Please model this.
Amino acid sequence: MLLAVCLLPILLGCGKKTKKSERSTAENQDEQLKEEKIALQTVYKSRLADVPKQKFKLSVDTVSFLVAEKGTVIYVQPGSFTDENGKTVTGEISLEVSEVITMQDFVKVGISTMAGEKILETGGTFYIQASKDGKPLKINPKVGLGLAIPSVEKKPDMQLFYGEMIKDSLNPNGVNWVLANGPEKDPDDLDEPTAPNEILDPLEGLEKNEVALHAEYVRAEMFLKDIEKNYKLEGSQYVYVGTEGRRISYEANYVNKLRRKLAALKAYKKFLDYKRNFYRKKNAALYAAWEKYKQQLDEYEAKMFKSGKPTFYELKLKQSGPWFNCDRYSILQQENFVCRIIRKKDKKPALLGRIHIIDEKMKVHIQRYLTKEMQGKFSFPFPKNREFKIVIERGKEEAKEFVYDGKKTDLGDIEV
Model:
């Protein structure tokens, strides 16, 4: 009994010290958090609104190929946009465009290449917003808007994704990518001009090359000139009334069919002229775009660049974004990588920060945020045995960059 009485003050004293120690730890961490919040006030801010925007003015009454600063080509044709009531827009419109192409762009803007928890290999991310008289326009799904995106390495299985704004603890100011539905998900040629059926139907059975069509045009034109000059319609037939003593007559249905064919041939000739002009404009735009793209290749892409042959992903947008990208799902199996991020000056857990995981070869960028609740413990999905970088931003401090070979999933302590 006496022993218990003697021990009681000691135990109470220990309890007080423990509580005091806990309070001290909590106060220190709150002070640390306060200090970090002051330094990190810009880290959690969304950077999407700060992406440089290029502005174009153009007429949607004709075909236009716009070349953006980093080499993206935007193909606008009559009927590409509608107003809020679904009415097709004509005349002059304004177009705002942003391009996120290199890994440096993705880090600066803070956009991840992720669809949910699946990693995407990217061909680029884009913002496109049209307006007329200050009012936003929508992409007409019946016509669409074309994009051509330059790339030194054209990967198979690239698809169109639309951006969906998200706000969660891991990525409070980001974009999640959703695979497009329908035929626009597969990169294809930019709307190769095709003749309408009212032109093609009367030409059924004819070769659609210019030499054959020109020969058919000459024959039909000469025949119909002869009909107009030397024949007269009597009932259902055209009867010869000339001076050469011909005894030939032609059914009126046959002559009318030839008239429709000649009209179609004229229209098709006009269409071929339009098609030639289309490809002249397109090729000029792609060449100019490729020259711009070459000037801003990142280090890895510059090493890959061996020839001057332009290669592009070509997409057709059928719904308004305004964020889009050209990506593919990574086929590599993902592992869960872990690390502990600590402050170099006192070895305490870093409580706040913006973290980037980058694979320049795959063109993958994952952005995450470090929060107080994590106590410096950080994890992320990534394929094993691939070299990648981790870049950690902490407000006014200079961003720290670390390179890993991906062989171990436990990266240990990272000092910042």
